[in-house]
Amino acid sequence: MSDDDNSPISAREAKRLFAGLKAAPALVLAVSGGPDSVALMWLAARWRRALARGPELTVVTVDHGLRPEAAREAREVKRLATELGLSHRTLRWRGAKPKTGLPAAAREARYRLLAEAARAVGASHVLTAHTRDDQAETLVMRLLRGSGLAGLSAMAFLSERDGIVLARPLLDVPKTQLISTLRRAKVRFADDPTNRDIAYTRPRLRALLPLLAAEGGDARTLARLAARLARANAAVEVLADGAERFLRLRDRGDAPQAGERSFEASSFAVLPDEVRLRLLLRAINALGHEGPAELGKVETLLAALDQAIAARPRAAANGRPSLRQTLAGALISLAGGRIHIAPAPARRRKGR
User: What is the SS3 string spanning 81-138?
Assistant: First the structure.
């Protein structure tokens, strides 16, 4: 770990971190009370005070109702936000909580509530306090799950969710630097014990990171790998865009019907596998109603399509589709030398 990783963030450095957000009309800061998000709030408030004009800042704390300490932590965030001259709202995740997949469900609820808060105050962005350490953990988690290139790109500095831009200005900042910043400013923060609860996947992986760091795989290296994979992923997306244009040119008047997408099978078959997978994913996610589609299932679909395309001259004699299956609420078929993707009929309810 370099000395810079332990040094407080200067006002000049904070100005660089938030520079791209200066023209936003308003920003929502997602602040839980932990060191990362409290540092985000403190740095953003200092940055905003130095501007003659800039976005309005609103601090939002989401209380998931999972820990008794959460309400007190939200009040502490409100106290600090008020001291910094920022407005604050606490939003609560109400209703029954799932018995399985709780972290994922809580994350979905948090982003939904943050997006609603952003729309309510006219904010274009929600800022989260994801750090370089979070990026490294995300890469390792997705690697162990067998994610593809897009998943291994981990988190982006900017992404879109529910019509709101998610911004992660601290994504290349180590957690140690944020803690140093708060300690110098004498700002207190909460300690969430669930971050160490090995009942959950991320804390278990977090415990492994020191071992990886000892072998050279520290957070800086892993985050650099994620950035390189993101760069490669962006290049493949450009190739997929070009492939879509190529397939449209090959249609020669055989345009798909409204509400569906289709490709000439022989032209589709000669494209690289990664590009073909992305074209299928795009179409299925756009037209299906049970998505997003899982990469592994789309890989299985592509293999079935290849087999059906190779056998098509024999199968076409009876005039029936040589492949017909549903995936993520989309209907995929091979007929008449074309691959068709359309919304699948609604499933029949049991008992009807």
Answer: HHHCCCEEEEEECCCCCCCCCHHHHHHHHHHHHHHHHHHHHCCCEEECCCCHHHHHHH
Rounded distance between C-alpha atoms, residue 251 and residue 338, angstroms: 10
Q: In this structure, are 218 and 273 located in the same domain?
A: no
**Contact 149/274 with Cβ under 8 angstroms?**
yes
For residue 62, give its domain range: 3-229
Residue 216 φ then ψ, to 5°: 100, -5
Domain annotation covers residue 240: no
Q: Reduced to 3 states, what is the DSSP secondary structure of residue 162?
A: coil
* CATH number for 162: 3.40.50.620
92: β partners: 63
Shortest CA distance to 193 belongs to which of 17, 33, 20, 308? 33
Question: Does residue 222 sit in the same domain as residue 328?
Answer: no
Q: Which region, left, alpha or beta, applies to residue 116 given φ > 0 means left and ψ of -120 to 50 means alpha?
A: alpha
User: CB atoms < 10 A from the CB of 201, how many?
Assistant: 14
- In single-letter form, the type of residue at position 228 comes to R
Q: What is the rounded distance in angstroms from the CA atom of residue 62 to the CA atom of residue 352?
A: 41
Counted domains in the chain: 2
Phi and psi angles of residue 153, each rounded to the nearest 5 degrees, phi first: -70, -10
> What is the H or E stretch that residue 334 is in?
strand 330-335
Which residues are CB-contacts of 234 (< 8 A; sequence separation ≥ 6)?
Answer: none
Least confident of 15-19, 109-113, 196-200, 333-337: 196-200
Say whether both 29 and 130 belong to one domain.
yes
Q: Model confidence over 123-137: pLDDT tens digits? A: 999 999 999 999 999
Between CA 186 and CA 170 the distance in angstroms is 20
- Please report whether residue 100 resides in a domain: yes
Which residue from 27, 311, 304 is spatially nearest to 164, judged by alpha carbons? 27
Q: Would you say residue 177 has pLDDT above 70?
A: yes
